[in-house]
Design goal:
The chain is mainly beta. The chain contains 1 helix and 22 strands.
Length: 250
């Protein structure tokens, strides 16, 4: 069964929610998936990203914050029976399925605001928050443009391709030519407060999902919308003003 949330206040269960979509919003405004009509709750207070059997909680810069198991947190890899507290409300996370990722994966890919050392020569590194592009996953510098190519009309990926090594290479800006190898279950790309997306490695391929920002990421010039979008070899992704090419490594 999919993971679910149980919303309660003062010990009384108010509602249950099944986590059957990739991005679940919690907040005061009606457009949220979990609406808590209370002035202590921000318009968009938090988001839960669910990929395969894993769910990740992120505070969306809310006014009053949130706690998990009594500890104030901004980002948290959810585990069975975790208790989320938002104001007077409590949300219990229930998931009896084995997890796919680890808390270490989450910390390395989702924590976008920590400073990272600059690249040699003083320029901003791929993970440098002072630059235009942010990712906290380790990146490998490849100055050559051997992988830069126009988007190909690739056929849908066979399941075997999900096991291939894959990477994205930045095509413009100060980090042009740098490569980010996709070695984790989840890799978060973008610029906090502007536009953020999660790139997930699944058994049947690589998928990009919008997480934060008014505009959706573009793939080959077209908006991906709210739903996860499967990436094909040599797709061109545009995110937070940065173009990058997704490709499978030989």
């Amino acid at each position: 069964m999919p993971a679910k949330l149980i919303l309660s206040m003062d010990g009384e269960v108010l509602k249950e929610y099944v986590l059957n979509k990739e991005r679940t919003l919690i907040g005061r405004k009606p457009h949220n998936d979990i609406v808590i009509d209370n002035l202590a709750i921000s318009s968009e207070h938090a988001a839960i990203i669910t990929i395969l059997n894993d769910s990740f909680l992120e505070d969306l810069e809310s006014t009053n914050g949130l706690m998990v198991n009594g500890v104030v947190t901004k980002k948290h890899f959810l585990q069975n029976n975790d208790l989320i507290e938002i104001g007077k409300y409590k949300i219990k996370y229930l998931n009896d399925q084995p997890v796919q990722a680890t808390s270490a994966d989450f910390e390395k890919t989702m924590v976008l605001s920590r400073p990272v050392k600059t690249a040699p020569g003083g320029g901003p590194g791929v993970g440098d928050v002072t630059g235009k592009f942010v990712s906290t996953t380790t990146a490998t510098v490849k100055p050559s443009a051997e992988h830069v190519a126009a988007p190909a009309q690739a056929a849908p990926q066979p399941a075997a391709q999900a096991q291939q090594a894959a990477a994205v290479q930045i095509l413009n800006g100060p980090n042009a030519g740098k490569e980010l190898e996709l070695v984790k279950s989840l890799t978060t790309l973008g610029k906090p407060g502007v536009q953020v997306a999660v790139l997930a490695r699944r058994p049947h391929g690589f998928f990009i999902t919008h997480v934060e920002g008014e505009k959706f990421p573009l793939v080959n010039g077209e908006s991906i919308g709210e739903q996860p979008h499967q990436l094909n070899d040599h797709d061109i992704v545009e995110l937070a003003g940065v173009k990058m090419e997704f490709y499978f490594k030989a």
